[in-house]
Amino acid sequence: MDRDRLLRELNEFLRIPSVSTLPAHDDDCRAAAEWVAAELRRLGCSDVEFLGSEKHPVVWGVGPDVPGAPTLLLYGHYDVQPPDPLKEWTTPPFEPAVRDGRLYARGAADDKGQVFCLLKAVEANDRPPVNFRFLIEGEEEFGSKVLFDLLKREPHRSKADVALVADMSYVAPGWPAVYSTLRGLCYAEITVRTAKSDLHSGEYGGAAPNAHEELARLLGRLKGEDGRVNVPGFYGPVKRPSKAELAAWKKLPFKEKDFLVKRVQAKGLTGLKKYSVLERLWALPTFEIHGILGGFTGQGAKTVIPAEATAKVSLRLVPNQKLKHVQQQVAAAVKRFAPKYVTATVKFLHGADPAQIKLDHPSFKLLDQAFREVVGRGTLPARAGGSIPVVPALGATGAPVILTGIGLPDDRLHAPDEKLDLKQLWDGIEDRGVQTVLRTTGAWGVGRSVAPTPHVLPSEFLTRVPKLIDLVLGQAPATVALLGPRVPAHVVAVLLPKAGDVFVEQLEAAHPLRALP
Ligand code: BES
Ligand code: MN
Ligand code: MN
Q1: Which of 113, 83, 111 is nearest to 416 (CA)?
Q2: pLDDT value at position 98?
Q3: What CATH number is given to the structural domain containing 219?
């Protein structure tokens, strides 16, 4: 594998400033969509289309047809978050630079680098026994409305045996992960109006209301110093993780002290102190202020009482909370907490319900096995603090949604000096990391009858490779034996390349597989 070429190609992708939330970058988002589409065509996708929007389209691709094989939906996003504050980047965000084995650029880890990893892993793995579908969107960082609408209109686009979302990270270097929850999000602008227009602070100061002051007090009422969100009803549906899950988190390679010193790089942590940091990050909802607008913020000094101020805020939601309810709760709380002489309004920009995924489908075993082969360690079950709005909709057809990825926790997503460790990328592509994952995903359709044509498997196969069968079918070998020799074609399609490494020569010589008429 030519790493120089790959790096050149990824850099090309990263140089496109596809910031979905800023209209000034609409053309760049289109260019990034074109870049993805060209890659999909190069992979041999028969049907590459822009769907859903004139603005930031969803790039859709259908991989080469493998009759009888299961369908794997690969999801990712080509849009990125705004790169500001620019002066805090060591090198400019859209001029990718390698330092110390790390590739620095906006989108390096979130999510262009990971989309790239998937595409190149498929390319490196010729004709995997899988029917690939690609949904690579361009509005993930702005709420995914276009993809929601598309899936509502055309639900078949997400029809698959398994969906794979590679937009996450390991829990620590050397520790790959699979995630059982994502937090949801409720993004809002809270605006406070106190007078018809701005006023001279000498003429009016002392008697006229000040919008910034009122906004500051309102925000202070919405969230207390102790970290509690004081929106009435907000914590109602929140459930604590089970004792077993909390105990498992204690064993994760995560130290609160390191988190403070190495990752947050602050002087102290905040939030609800009676819960562990992981519980605060993964299982509790939040309220954050992202920016405050209004009044005078130019150079120099101006003495004015601002008449209007706006805060951009968001609340992260955890399983059982519902975006719709939280929006109602926030609107009611703002109304209740603002004094009578203030006009306070809330505008909801976008949002997402939380996602919860059962990790019991056989595909998760395969993912674990694949990472074990490549990294030397299987996947740790974890939860994620971040949000990927479309995940609940991707799983609506009943297919398991596999949340995993090749990032590392210190990639600084959305922040200055975002990076991707190149070793993670090469592991993913070259050392059969994601490649193996993709290959083994061939079996993820097991249990759903995708293929009508059964094959005859030699009984020897069933008795001599019980471990392999256990791995692929996720069932005890005894149960498999009961299935008898008639095994669905898509299982065979997967067993063959997997078995190929170990047994295929002997097996095929002795008992060539025969398709039944
Ligand atoms: N890849 C992230 C989500 C993520 C981050 C998952 C960290 C797990 C760990 C995604 O691109 C993201 O940033 N999503 C936004 C969604 C929002 C803008 C609707 C987020 O979480 O803020
Ligand atoms: Mn992302
Ligand atoms: Mn992101």
Answers
A1: 83
A2: 98
A3: 3.30.70.360
